[in-house]
Prior knowledge:
The chain is an all-alpha fold and 370 residues long. Helix content is 75%, strand content 0%. The protein has helices spanning 13-51, 60-71, 82-116, 129-143, 153-174, 181-205, 209-220, 231-247, 249-256, 259-264, 269-291, 297-309, 313-337, 346-369. Helix 4 (129-143) packs antiparallel against helix 5. The longest helix is centred in the N-terminal third of the chain and has 39 residues, at 13-51. It is globular. The N and C termini lie far apart (70 Å).
Amino acid sequence: xxxxxxxxxxxxxxxxxxxxxxxxxxxxxxxxxxxxxxxxxxxxxxxxxxxxxxxxxxxxxxxxxxxxxxxxxxxxxxxxxxxxxxxxxxxxxxxxxxxxxxxxxxxxxxxxxxxxxxxxxxxxxxxxxxxxxxxxxxxxxxxxxxxxxxxxxxxxxxxxxxxxxxxxxxxxxxxxxxxxxxxxxxxxxxxxxxxxxxxxxxxxxxxxxxxxxxxxxxxxxxxxxxxxxxxxxxxxxxxxxxxxxxxxxxxxxxxxxxxxxxxxxxxxxxxxxxxxxxxxxxxxxxxxxxxxxxxxxxxxxxxxxxxxxxxxxxxxxxxxxxxxxxxxxxxxxxxxxxxxxxxxxxxxxxxxxxxxxxxxxxxxxxxxxx
Length: 370
């Protein structure tokens, strides 16, 4: 009434307490975003440095200039030898891009399957997809059995084997009952063992020593034969599958809590699980068809990503993709530099790195159980 403003009331303790959780959540979200950005920058640096490593070492600065020259046209004139240009663009770039896509695919598939099957030790080969791809590849390498001709015969044979293995595992899991996580796990293991035995029998029955060695190299995985011809299909399938799986992130969070919890939220667990398994089958199948059977990426990387950004799938899956891409690129560099001039199958390197991490994770699970 006298024109003076009433003094501002101090915030109550109740309002301050209610604001604290919001501040903590905002701070946690910013921290997750920064960690994801840091991992993405690290992946780019790893990819650029890896392009310059090998028998002929090229500095990261020159590598970046060569890439910029071909991508954005700057610098306009090449100041480096043409041999370095050929090494970076024609030889190493296709294999690095393939390693990035394959690593991302295997890590995302592993993170998804660990939730779908509800088993922390599940990996992309839980459905026998890898075993099916290996059987298809072995049939082509040893006996010339191919579903199509031409340059894509090996990849197509491996993909068909992977798809058949996935459908077989899903049918076995649905046989006589509902496809629960336990039934899917057991069906995948059964199909995997059966097709691994079939591959071993084909190697034994073949009278081609060179073919047997090629199958063994395929079984251990490699990106050495990567070409630009196989990149478009691999990139389209991998990127599309990652987008789809990330879009279903909240439903995967619910499924991770159990079928009963998912059902109370209006989610059909069986339908969701089947759909996610089919997407993962396509993801792993096309990857195995391109680079062979590479283990431990989909088993170890998802756990490292969870420790970094948490278990929410909308942040977990992109982080796992970036970490898996960087992990496989580093493993590829090690595979071609550890025993020069020979090149190790990349599966040996991922096993050497992944085994200690897996042992450590199993020990932590045992400590938590006790």
